[in-house]
Structures are given as structure tokens and as C-alpha cells.
User: What shape does this take?
Amino acid sequence: MPRGGKRAGAGRPQGTGKYGEATKAVRLPIRIADEILAALAGGSQEIELGTMVQSIFKPERKTKVSLPLYLNPVAAGLPTLTEDYVDDNIDLNRHLVKHPETTYLVRVVGESMIDAGIHPNDMLIVDRSIEVTNGQVVIAVVNGELTVKRIRKDRDKLWLMPENEAFKPIEIDEHTDLHIWGVVTNVIHAL
Assistant: This one.
């Protein structure tokens, strides 16, 4: 009998584990691995990371916040007459979080993404189930450091691009340890 390699029928059938679907192995820096896994597993535990992403949160799914949505839109130019009429109520969890099982929130520090509308202390909603494509804003681990940047593929090169001229792009080459942790879908920005 040959040794090594994949054997027919060996291992657990795909999709029968804890998550009920195929999984992907992810490498984490040892110094933050346990805290990140605990935060992603549940609760609203905050993690201090000291990089461009300050904290990671799991969204709270037990509560629902239903807010009124007014029928008339708000004019950003000239004021318009408004009617005091509520069209519907919106649950912000349903509106902002499309895939609850694969979504988490992060708090931002630093100013490298200001021109994309991402400011210090903003909360980002990140979805790990969205396939990463050129031009999307992503949460990435680069050589053990967590950051938020726009991904750009140009010919055979991959870059993590800041959205502030004061910062330099990060070129990803064969010596760079890169892991994408998800696509930013929304920014919660306080005025």
C-alpha cells in the first residue's frame, strides 16, 4: 500500500464540522491569536491591537433596533418641504449586516484612509464571506500587523493602497506574509 497523500474516504466529510460548511485555515500572529479567536467566537470583547485597526468586535445579534424611515429624502442642496410621515421601520442590524455569521466590526486608528471617508475612531463593518476583488477596501494582516487599505492588483503586482497622500502604498511580494480578513462593507462615522 502506498504511503502519504490523500486516501479515498479518509477524514471528515466536507461541511459536517462545527460550521456546517467548508472552512479555511488562517494564520494569526501568536501574540493576538487567542484574543482574536475569542472575539470572533462571540460576545463583544474588545481587543487592543496597537495597529491601524484598534479593536475587533463581534456584532450583537440578540438585540434589534428598529428606527423610523421617513418617506421623504433629506435634501443636501436646497431645503424641501417635508411631510411628517413614516414609511417604514428599519432594523440596522439587517440593513448593515448581510452575513451575520461572517461579519465583525473593527475600530480604526490612524489617518491613512481619510480620503476614502475612514477616520480615526470610525467603526468598520467587515464581511469575511465576500470574495475580494480589485479596488475593495479590506482588513489585512501584513507581516503580523493588522491594517485597513484598498487592494489594488496591477499586472502581476499586488498593492495595499492608502487613501491619503501622506502615506506610501504597501507592495506585496513573495517575502510578504499577507492574509485578508475581509471586505469593508460599511463605515460608521460619528460627526
The two ends are 68 Å apart (CA to CA). Residues 43-51 have pLDDT under 50 and may be disordered.
